[in-house]
UniProtKB/TrEMBL annotation:
The keyword Disulfide bond does not apply. It comes from Proteiniclasticum ruminis. Keywords: Ion transport, Transport. Pfam families: ATP-synt_F (PF01990). This is V/A-type H+-transporting ATPase subunit F. The keyword Ion transport applies. GO terms for molecular function: proton-transporting ATPase activity, rotational mechanism. Belongs to the V-ATPase F subunit family. SUPFAM superfamilies: AtpF-like.
Amino acid sequence: MRFFLISDNIDTQMGMRMAGIEGVVVHERREVLEELEKAMHQDDIAIVLITTKLIETCADVISELKLRQLKPLIVEIPDRHGQHKIGETIDKYVSDAIGVKL
């Protein structure tokens, strides 16, 4: 089982590559969804890392996949600017999953 990265910048891709994680750099919603679809159909990919900026481009689809898909696990990672509050995103996912606002 392996990780796969979908990033919006080359810096994140290069850093992850040094850690042994392969990935792609994309910028448009369509590209994100295409790469995510490819990753979901590869049996050896267990975790897909996606930068915050790209999550925001297709949050509706990714949120639904996180709630419905067992594999791969989709994990949001901060980009090089790191200005997004991951905790709030996690709270939203949990609230959506259980139907109670936290």
